[in-house]
């Protein structure tokens, strides 16, 4: 097949950018732990930015630059609590990119927290939070 | 097709433009209830609905001031409302990257004396999972999203794809989304195709019985020493354009692109 460019007209569509970034995660959630250090639930706030107003970058140990989602969002949701199912609770902690790392701790926290994130994103609280942040961003 | 004037509006002019009922015994209520351009907002003071569109009861001739009908279709069928692509990327050694590419395809064809314009979703790589509705996608197969049939006389001049993509990310990564040149079809969109107006190619264009154009998309994430997930939600609108008519929104679709980054091992 050829890679011929499709014929394009000269018309220009006035486009309103609706590209947004939403973020939550160990960089900004609050972990509620019991006296044994077992994390039982999370208090979550979803932060959001317009694509044109992203936060600054942060450089980790690899030397690569990443968007610093730990910064305050242009908009944010109300806090909501997510109880962690017993089989996904852990005493391990987020490394926050600080060295030296504890490999065993990091692996378990990474495995558990990834499952938390995926389950949280299916909850109505999260869906409502995204809608709230989106509404705020659209108004900017 | 003749735009209804803003004064001296006749029931005959309304019927002729709306295209509903015979040209005698015209009911203003029936014309209002069957007007295809439901987004029309009167240009005449006192007949404008608060949220735009026709006001409904009580029906008024002034509601049709400046009315113009939408592009006429023989049929407009939604084949699927959404698609999804998922990849799990296992990485170690510090830095890692994950990416998913997919594409939309517009294809024109003939059906009897009518012309058909169809939009498809295509999985372009076997490295990740893809689905349309409840159907698992195979690589290189075109899965229909929206099928619109026109008479040849009503064949639009052009079309454009409006895409808005938002990202939900759980930290630890850097997410980007690109509209890239599609490939493997008769024509390519070239990059940055969001809302770029393309000529709607008729069947037989340059000897192609079913001329097709590919519109590519790529989602990328890079991370360091973190397990996280990133989901891009692309809201896609297919619009047709024809001189003298308002743009026709044929359909709205959602494509979800999910990358799960799974980190293990030492962080150097």
Continuous helix count of chain A:
2
Biggest sheet details of chain A: 3 strands, antiparallel
Strand order of the largest sheet of chain A: 3-6-9
Helix content of chain A: 10-25%
Describe the sheet with the most strands of chain B: 7 strands, mixed
Uncertain runs of chain B: none
The tally of domains of chain B stands at 2
Our Rg estimate of chain A from Cα atoms comes to 19 Å
Secondary structure: number of strands of chain B: 14
Morphology of chain A: globular
What order do the helices and strands of chain A follow? EEEEEEEEEEHH
Count of domains of chain A: 1
**Low-pLDDT residue spans of chain A:** none
Question: Helix count of chain B, per DSSP?
Answer: 2
* Average of per-residue pLDDT values of chain B: 92
First-residue to last-residue Cα separation of chain A: 44 Å
The dominant shape of chain B is elongated
- Strand residue percentage of chain B: over 45%
Distance between the termini of chain B: 69 Å
Pick out its properties:
A: 140 residues; alpha+beta; three-stranded antiparallel beta sheet; 24% helix; B: mainly beta; 2 domains; 14 strands; elongated
How would you explain this protein's 3D organization?
The complex is a heterodimer of chains A (140) and B (268). Chain A has 140 residues and is an alpha+beta fold. Chain A has one domain. Chain A is built from two helices and ten strands, in the order ββββββββββαα. Chain A has a three-stranded antiparallel beta sheet with strand order 3-6-9, covered by helices on one side. In chain A, strands 4-5-10 form a three-stranded antiparallel beta sheet, covered by helices on one side. In chain A, strand 7 and strand 8 form a beta hairpin. The longest helix of chain A is centred in the C-terminal third of the chain and has 18 residues. The model of chain A has no long low-confidence stretch (mean pLDDT 92). In chain B, the strands form two sheets. In chain B, strands 1, 3, 4, 7, 9, 10 and 12 form a seven-stranded mixed beta sheet that branches. The model of chain B has no long low-confidence stretch (mean pLDDT 92). Chain B is elongated. At the A-B interface, strand 1, strand 2, strand 3, strand 8 and helix 1 of A face strand 8, strand 9, strand 10, strand 11 and strand 12 of B.
């Amino acid at each position: 097949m050829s890679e011929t460019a499709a014929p394009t007209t000269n018309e220009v569509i006035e486009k309103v950018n609706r590209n947004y970034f939403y973020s939550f995660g160990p960089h900004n959630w609050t972990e509620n732990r019991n006296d044994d250090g077992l994390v039982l639930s999370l208090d979550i706030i979803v932060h959001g930015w317009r694509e044109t107003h992203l936060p600054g970058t942060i450089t980790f140990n690899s030397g690569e630059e990443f968007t610093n989602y730990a910064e305050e969002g242009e908009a944010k949701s109300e806090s909501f609590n997510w109880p962690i199912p017993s089989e996904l609770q852990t005493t391990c902690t987020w490394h926050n990119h600080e060295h030296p790392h504890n490999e065993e701790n990091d692996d378990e926290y990474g495995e558990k927290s990834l499952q938390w994130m995926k389950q949280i994103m299916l909850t109505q609280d999260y869906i409502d939070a995204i809608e709230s942040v989106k509404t705020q961003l659209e108004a900017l | 097709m003749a735009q209804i004037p803003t004064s001296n509006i006749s029931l005959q002019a309304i019927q002729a433009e709306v295209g509903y009922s015979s040209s005698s015994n015209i009911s203003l209520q029936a014309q209002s209830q069957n007007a295809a351009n439901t987004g029309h907002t009167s240009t005449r003071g006192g007949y404008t609905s608060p949220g735009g569109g026709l006001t409904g009861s009580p029906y008024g001739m002034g509601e049709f001031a400046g009315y113009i009908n939408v592009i006429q279709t023989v049929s407009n069928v939604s084949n699927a409302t959404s698609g999804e692509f998922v990849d799990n990327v296992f990485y170690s050694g510090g830095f890692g990257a994950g990416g998913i590419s997919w594409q939309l395809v517009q294809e024109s064809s003939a059906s009897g004396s009518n012309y058909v314009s169809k939009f498809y979703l295509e999985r372009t790589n076997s490295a990740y999972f893809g689905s349309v509705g409840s159907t698992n996608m195979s690589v290189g197969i075109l899965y229909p999203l929206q099928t619109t049939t026109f008479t040849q006389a009503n064949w639009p001049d052009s079309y454009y794809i409006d895409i808005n993509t938002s990202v939900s990310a759980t930290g630890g990564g850097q997410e980007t989304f690109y509209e890239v040149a599609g490939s493997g079809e008769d024509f390519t969109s070239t990059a940055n195709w969001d809302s770029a107006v393309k000529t709607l190619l008729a069947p037989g264009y340059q000897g192609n019985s079913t001329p097709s154009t590919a519109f590519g998309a790529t989602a990328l994430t890079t991370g360091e020493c973190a397990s996280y997930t990133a989901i891009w939600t692309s809201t896609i609108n297919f619009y047709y354009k024809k001189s003298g008519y308002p743009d026709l929104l044929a359909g709205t679709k959602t494509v979800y692109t999910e990358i799960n980054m799974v980190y293990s091992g030492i962080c150097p």
